[in-house]
Structures are given as C-alpha cells and as structure tokens.
C-alpha cells in the first residue's frame, strides 16, 4: 500500500511538471486568441485532476462516500466547504468529476501559491482567485475576475474554504475566543467563517449561477 501511494505521488508530480510546461508553452497562442489559451489550460487542468481521482480510487483503493441531496449536473455553482486537511481537495475533485464539472473548478486560494511551480502556477492559468485574504487589497482583483467570468460566459464551480485556513486545535481555540468576544455561538468542529469574499461572490455573479452548495 505504501509503495502504491509513493508511486502515485511520483506519477502526479512528474505529470504536473509536464502540464506546467505545456501551460507555459500555451502562452504562444496568446497574441492570436486569448480564449484558446484558456480552453487549452482548462483541458490540461481537467486531465491532471482526472488523473488524481483515478489514482486515488483505482491505484490506492480509496472509496468516496457521498451523502446529501442530489446535485445538478454541469451547472454553474458556488461551493463552500470546511477545510480539515489536504484530503478535502481530493474529495472535492471527486465530487466535481461526479457532477461533470471537474473542468470548471475555480479555487479561492492564498496568493502565495502563485509563486509555487506546479499547482500554484496551474491555478493562475485557469483563472482561479489567488487572494491575500485582505478585502481592501483583494476587492479589485476579485471583481475584475468575476467580470471576466460574466463577459466570457466562463463555466464555473467556485470552491471557497470559508474558514480561510485548515483546522487545528490552536485555530479552534482562537475561533472560540473570537466567537465569545462577538457574542456568537462557539463552534467545536469548524472555524468561524469569513464572509466578505462570499458575499462579494454572490453579488458579482448574481444571475450566473444556479446554486450555492454547502459541503462539509
């Protein structure tokens, strides 16, 4: 099992490096048609995410169990989720593939990732939202990206971890202390959500999404 896991990580790392190379090479199309660049990178992201799902399920033998209401297929949606560990990413990829929206995933992620080869560079090529988690500095960038989504009619499943960070005992304690100061109900298994980006998403994309899904 350990050997299969290490083999999967190695294959994903090599394939991601190759896809990054193709993404950079796709910029040669930019002077001719920017939309070609987007479509190429959308397809490359789909291929790598699909490979992630395939290896996790078929190679490593991990089974995903889904419960809750049935979601519509291939619709524009805003997906909010809590963030306990990196396995959350795989679960969301699996769900996106299940709903035939894997190629349409857009992620809210921290801005530092844009300097990271591989995943960070890849997210930039598919018009994800790499933010500093400071509304004053992020607002113009977010609104500009959403304007592009609207004008170009870009299909999307926007993934937003409203807690803003991964769960840990220290962060739970900080969130509970914050809740007490703000006269909110202390939470024990999730953090207090950050809401400004969420409301901005709802307002700027109004009329362009069919649903908001809460995935825990």
Task: Explain the overall architecture.
The chain has 216 residues and is of the alpha/beta class. Helices cover 50% and strands 11% of the residues. Helix 4 links the parallel strand 2 (105-110) and strand 3 (129-131). Helix 1 runs antiparallel to helix 2 (34-59), helix 1 (2-26) packs across helix 4 (119-125) and helix 5 (135-151) runs parallel beside helix 7. The two termini are 28 Å apart.
| Strand proportion | 5-15%
User: How do the strands line up in the largest sheet?
Assistant: 3-2-4-1-5
Task: State the helical fraction.
Answer: 40-55%
Which sequence of SSEs, written as H and E, runs from N to C? HHEHEHEHEHHE
Distance from N terminus to C terminus (CA atoms, Å) equals 28 Å
- Unreliably modeled segments: none
Average pLDDT taken over every residue: 91
What's the total count of β strands?
5
Instruction: Report the total helices.
Output: 7
Structural class: alpha/beta
In this structure, how is the largest beta sheet organized? 5 strands, parallel
Roughly how many Å is the radius of gyration?
A: 18 Å
- What overall form do the CA principal axes indicate? globular
In short:
The protein is α/β, with parallel strands linked by helices. 50% of the residues lie in helices and 11% in strands.
């Amino acid at each position: 099992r350990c050997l299969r896991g290490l083999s999967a990580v190695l294959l994903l790392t090599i394939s991601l490096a190759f896809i990054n190379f193709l993404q950079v090479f796709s910029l040669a199309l930019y002077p001719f048609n920017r939309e070609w660049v987007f479509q190429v990178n959308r397809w490359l992201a789909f291929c790598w995410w699909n490979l992630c799902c395939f290896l996790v399920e078929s190679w490593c033998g991990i089974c995903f169990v889904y419960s809750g209401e049935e979601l519509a297929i291939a619709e524009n949606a805003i997906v909010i989720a809590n963030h306990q560990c990196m396995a959350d990413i795989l679960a969301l990829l699996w769900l996106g593939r299940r709903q035939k929206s894997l190629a349409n995933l857009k992620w809210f992620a921290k801005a530092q990732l844009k300097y990271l080869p591989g995943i960070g560079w890849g997210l930039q090529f598919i018009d994800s939202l790499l933010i500093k988690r400071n509304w004053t500095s992020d607002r113009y960038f977010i609104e500009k990206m959403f304007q592009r989504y609207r004008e170009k009619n870009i299909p999307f499943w926007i993934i937003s971890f409203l807690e803003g960070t991964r769960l840990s005992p220290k962060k739970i304690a900080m969130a509970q202390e914050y809740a007490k100061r703000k006269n909110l109900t202390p939470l024990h298994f999730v953090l207090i959500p950050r809401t400004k980006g969420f409301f901005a998403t709802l307002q700027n994309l109004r009329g362009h999404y069919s649903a908001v899904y809460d995935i825990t």
